[in-house]
């Protein structure tokens, strides 16, 4: 199974950088995962709710450990999100274009996490399903 197929086969997801602002990619990725029938949780430390879904400040505060994590944050934030993901036991991470951070990718891979950080966009792949 490809890395993308593995990521998309998860039962639970979280979106770091999910946004309540509908023009932002964090909103679009969150809504696309939800719209495809996937159990998805928004992560945002300053937003309480996104379209009726409770937003969580950190992975550790989610009601479940997500199998897959999509990251749409600035690279300096990505490092902390990945550290949290490693500590929580997330299985796969997809850094969306612009969120990539070499240090975070290396740490996640060393922890045995599947990492997609090649510039591919989850929105494009979900549109093909």
TrEMBL record:
It comes from the Bacteria. PANTHER family: COA-BINDING DOMAIN-CONTAINING PROTEIN, CYTOPLASMIC PROTEIN-RELATED. Residues 7-99 form the CoA-binding domain. This is Predicted CoA-binding protein. InterPro entries: CoA-bd, NAD(P)-bd_dom_sf. Pfam families: CoA_binding_2. SMART domains: CoA_binding.
């Amino acid at each position: 199974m490809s890395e993308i197929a593995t990521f998309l086969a998860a039962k639970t997801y979280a979106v770091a950088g999910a946004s309540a602002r509908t023009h932002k990619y964090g909103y679009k990725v969150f809504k696309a995962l939800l719209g495809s029938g996937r159990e998805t949780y928004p992560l945002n430390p300053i937003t309480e709710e996104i379209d009726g879904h409770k937003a969580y400040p950190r992975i550790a505060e989610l009601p479940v450990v997500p199998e897959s994590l999509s990251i749409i944050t600035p690279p300096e934030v990505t490092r902390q999100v990945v550290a949290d993901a490693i500590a929580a036991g997330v299985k796969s991470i997809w850094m969306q274009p612009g969120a990539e951070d070499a240090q975070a990718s290396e740490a996640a891979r060393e922890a045995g996490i599947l990492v997609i950080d090649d510039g591919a966009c989850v929105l494009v792949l979900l549109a093909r399903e």
